[in-house]
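Memo subject: From amino acid sequence to discrete backbone structure tokens
Keywords: amino acid chain, backbone geometry, structure tokens, three-dimensional fold.
Body of memo: The sequence and its backbone structure tokens, given next.
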Amino acid sequence: MFEFSGACEGCGETPYVKLLSQLFGDRLMVANATGCSSIYGGNLPTTPWTKDADGRGPAWSNSLFEDNAEFGLGFRVAADTHAGSPDAPPRAARCARSRARRRHPLGPAAAGVGAARPARTLAELKRRLDGVDGTVAEDLRSVVDFLVRRSIWIVGGDGWAYDIGSGGLDHVLSSGRNVNVLVLDTEVYSNTGGQMSKATPLGAVAKFATSGKTV
């Protein structure tokens, strides 16, 4: 569901992003920091993010350089709220919470393999609910799309993760919420031409740091 690379020739970032789409499919929600991955990820009117034959695909959005971690945490809070909102009808909310707590026996990552299966199960549930009368069926229809457990990923470069967005990232990680972080570490600020970052190795020369990193 990441069908082509719009990055510079030979870029090593896009295979990792493609892998996310292969592992988690239409359960994937990506909060993307401004940088290379937001440029080739959302270079409208084209975008490499795509959908399947049923029109389902990952949800992707770009946030500012300095607050992307918090932006992604918002995805998690929203998904958890939808899955167990006190405002949801009681039986449907219990069902949603039960589905959200399920864990694959081989771990969270393995649960995403074959990501089309939850979508097929959901489609079958909707089909069975069609035409069914009663309060329980109506309650379940109102929250049925939230039964599929979202896989939340916060994605950005080392300039975001270790420099400008580091404070927010620390905050989000310390919250203990169920989010995943993918740092595309190129050891420089790639999108703006090659300034050194905290990930630049000691002594390394970058395009806009020609004297080498001294600290």
Residues 9 and 149 are 35 Å apart (CA to CA). The chain has two domains: 14-184, 189-215. The two ends are 41 Å apart (CA to CA). The first strand starts at residue 28 and ends at 33.
